[in-house]
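Input for the complex:
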Amino acid sequence: MVSHVAFWVLAVVAVLAGAAVFIVNSMARASYALAVSFIGVGLQVLLLQQNYVGVVTILMMVMEMAVMAVYMIMFMGMNPALMPMSMVHDKRHALAVSIGVFVLLAAGTLIVPWPTRRGTPPADVTMTLGEELMGPKMLVMAAVGVVMAATIVAGVVLAAHQTRYDRFGDDLRRRPADDPQPGGVGR
Amino acid sequence: MVLLVAAALFSVGLYGALSQQVVVMVMMGLELMLNGLILAAAGFWWFLAPDPSGQVLLLVIIAAMTVEMAMGFAVATMLHRVRRVDMTDLARDLSR
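Predicted:
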């Protein structure tokens, strides 16, 4: 009973905080609202007995929102907590599409005859998840690891101000390198 | 009921992703949609098949979320550096 009440309170908090992201008039408040929404969902996942996933969701998303706040200050060139803003386009169509999608998903949720539960949850969910990841599902994690590594490389390549092609030319043969501040051993 | 909450989160995120002009806010909308997906997957796992391997799917969704954020921030950085632009409408020619 207590967990039911807690689930509904968290559901209301998560959805309202999610809506607040696009209602509040500053980007810093929006990122805090999104963090609150993620914390609500993370706690709901904890209530669904998935301790590891719930904690990972909360920790990761709170850090991500902190990074996002830094980005806003960098790109907006202002104090985002103090600067009111409303930058939307095609609001009416977006609202119609999102309401339509919600009605469709909710109808599917209510109409579909969901099957009964198969199997029972393991006694220690986190431990069995760990065993699964280090055993039969190792390939999934290995693939995710490669994707993450590729993301790091691609992110640096995209975001870097000056790459080796800027320094050494397209054929990488230009010497000395075209550096904004010359220096280094032997120069 | 878990799925209804997930659907609400997904729809709010979709509204944000479609309506917002600032790139970072569009990313917030996408994040909110994935937030709904996490909740739906957790609900499916608990109420339909609490098999340990099902949780791996949740970890994959979280990883996808991280990749989306990292690449989104990298593209936003490049866009800002090359064009001094932080709004989708000002980079509309990229969709051609």
